Request: fold
Amino acid sequence: MPKEREEEDQWEQHPHLHSQRGSLTIGSWFPLGSLRPDLYQLPEEPSEWAQPSGSTVRLCFAAQYHQEQEQLVVSLLRAANLPAQCQNNATLIKLQLMPSEDRHHRQAKARCKGCHPQFNDTFVFQVSNYSVDQFTLHMSLYTVDRLKKHNLVGYVLFPLRHSELQKAVGKVLWRDLEIESDLPLSKHGNIQVSLNYSQTLQRLTVVVLRARGLQCPCNADVSVQVSLQIHTQLVKTKWTAVTKGINPTFNEKLTFRLLPRQLDAACLSLEVQQVDSEAPTVVPSSRIRTPISLGLLVIGPFMYARGRELEHWNEMINKSQELVKQWHGLGPTKNMQKTT
Reply:
């Protein structure tokens, strides 16, 4: 039977895999064993998979966790906007769950060359219900030159928190590729943050993405306290969810109400904290024990900040249609323990 006809039959036998406006609904049409790309290819690219506007390098994928089988199913679909120098190179993606003692990774090779390669491969990871939210899916995109050298273009981190997995059900996800920061690791670690200010909505958006090199135990519970201050008045304080490790991924959005006339008098304070794992995490302010401060970052206008932190604030104001992302070094806080 010709391959094209075989694929058509596969599609007809699985009507529960169908496209909808703006998303792809994915039912149970996933392999529950090893990768079989010849049997489990996704259909030709539907118009609903259209990538978001802009020229940022992005990865398109789908992820679904099956609790009964304790399996994470990841479908790599395509990449977009690769640099021009990648036009004639092969493209591959390496997948790995982190943290993990297993250094082996899964690998998918693009079915065509170019700046918008397609993969259409599916992988299955066995992850228990009890530990799934402790892992992050790491997907690294490489181009392969004529000398067979693998050149890293960037990577995507997808935390396997239950909230993220629930939002991903039945949808095609587009994620911007990260590139390694050229910012040296500070004594207390670094933190990556995205900012946006909407003058129309009078809303300041803070996305706490991740941190690295924190001075705490590898299995420590970590949260970020984000505070909005105007002059000397503390206006509002919010917390991210608690995650673990010295290189935690948060990917959490927090919003604050801020009037345009207050922009020159306001600042953001982000304090990374090691929290008590035995205390409640839903309402951090009710913790029985005082959290341990791991480092502090202040972003704001000239009244509060200089250097990268001042530049980040000004760029946020000038680019109201974007989430402006930057890495920052953490500094010490007044109540930081001497041992850190």
